[in-house]
């Protein structure tokens, strides 16, 4: 076992110095207790002192401390008398004195009083006064103790923080600058291999090359080629970037350092840069090796935006250090850096230039074939019923990422287990899919019958509008069972498009307005139920006008900023006149679509009512029933030509 792993072990199961702290705390408490309850000098009044001690010739000495307190010492032989018994008995016996103390007003008045009290004494019996100045313990402790406690807690806090952030390190306040990367190597068997990664054929081929670079570098260097240093995996969340990196580690059988971009950044300045240095140092020592930085956008965001609110020197210095390290090591050191992000557009250009992360591997959302393969990977450990049809599952999950599919498979198994089934059936997968898309069914949500009616008409409105619009995806089912946040839903079977045409945009907006339009037509009253629809279409309409250049009046212009480096974060990149024009065009677009939808629903009002009634009765209406009520879907029933 190597040093790092030992460190890991320590990091996992830190030896907390609990007993040490405990001992320390106990001694502190004992100290305070002794201090407070230990041999004590009793404070007495002058009268008591004069009558019971001075006159009786019991006093041996008087010391005036700091001109404030007179300390009284009792003669040793008198201590044994009954009067002073309390002083010499018990745990806190006070044999040596001072035995009593008196707070004095002023030294002079005390001396005068003493003089007066002793005037009848013989000369040799008179007690004199000596003076002493001392620093009081109480004073010292009263300012040392809080300071001490403060330092003590600060230390504990730092240790804790050090431990919680230092996964790989020993975990102490002084290890901040150490890299927090997790290390996997041959001993820590990474079980993921390329077999676990389904689909992503092109990406796999490219990344296999990296494995080959590490295993047989001489094949490439012999011909004078330089081995790439950095590879950037780019793609939407859940498409398997991390999985791919893990598979590389599993296949290459070389040490693999993995950490997330955000782990570099700590609240202390300079820590990130120092961690980067440490990470590369460790990787070089173990070369050939792979460093994997997940979510690199946390540090790799473009620098120097003119935006005072967002400047982050710590992040910038971390990024600079990363760039320096990438430049710093020679191409043949045998270290390859993999990084993953879903926002390649906002990354600093310096990070992507040749010699750094110059290889980009794009992972996209899987197509139908790939989804089928991913389903197959995740269905393997599941006990399936015979009716499970992977092809159907793949077809019914367009736009789903690998992570979504993994989630569906797991949900389905959980649903089947809840129903105490022996095997997971197709129906469970369908339920899991609906749940992943729309959230949990909430049958217990209480709705009044009027509300139910409004929801039924609203959903029927969506269904009827989309049924007769040419460019809307085909409808699978309509439901008015509350699920997640929504009270009802129309479920579509989206086709996979790479581009969307203007007519498709408009038809989709109309379908989304179907709910609101139905409410207005049937009840002559509109409700708040269309919030989600309205939010969606407003955004869509603004995108059409300002990004995609789909508006005739404004023309083929786009204010989209793919660099993410817009310097006008607080202002708009267009004039006030243009802003007004945009607003007007968006409003026009939406109002025209709304009128069009209303016209369509009025035309098919009887179907709308029939469907709404069926929904109220059955709660869920499937394609078959939809077809019975609305007729076979003939796609040009209400195409653009028939609008007027
Ligand atoms: P990200 O791209 O966000 O890093 P991950 O790699 O973490 O996504 O993927 C999350 C999970 O999704 C994985 O653990 C895996 O179970 C599943 N997954 C994603 N893509 C695939 C794929 N191509 N093949 C098999 N499983 C996948």
UniProtKB/TrEMBL annotation:
Alphabetical UniProt keywords: ATP-binding, Cell cycle, Cell division, Cell membrane, Hydrolase, Membrane, Metal-binding, Metalloprotease, Nucleotide-binding, Protease, Transmembrane, Transmembrane helix, Zinc
SUPFAM superfamilies on file: FtsH protease domain-like, P-loop containing nucleoside triphosphate hydrolases
Record-annotated membrane-spanning stretches: 21-38, 140-158
Broad class of where this protein is predominantly found: membrane
Active site, per annotation: 459
Residues given in the record as ATP binding sites: 235-242
Bound cofactor: record note: Binds 1 zinc ion per subunit.
Annotated GO MF terms: ATP binding; ATP hydrolysis activity; ATP-dependent peptidase activity; metalloendopeptidase activity; zinc ion binding
GO process terms (BP): cell division; protein catabolic process; proteolysis
Class of this enzyme: hydrolase
Residues annotated for Zn(2+) binding in this entry: 458, 462, 533
Chain coiled-coil ranges: none
Cofactor requirement: Zn(2+)
Entry EC no(s): 3.4.24.-
Membrane topology term: Multi-pass membrane protein
Compartments where found: Cell membrane; Membrane
Glycoprotein keyword on record: no
Domain AAA+ ATPase span(s) in chain numbering: 227-367
Superkingdom of origin: Bacteria
Gene Ontology cellular-component annotations: plasma membrane
Function: Acts as a processive, ATP-dependent zinc metallopeptidase for both cytoplasmic and membrane proteins. Plays a role in the quality control of integral membrane proteins.
PANTHER family: AFG3 LIKE MATRIX AAA PEPTIDASE SUBUNIT 2, ISOFORM A, ATP-DEPENDENT PROTEASE
Annotated family: Belongs to the AAA ATPase family. In the N-terminal section; belongs to the AAA ATPase family.
Protein name per the record: ATP-dependent zinc metalloprotease FtsH
Taxonomic path: Bacteria, Pseudomonadati, Bacteroidota, Flavobacteriia, Flavobacteriales
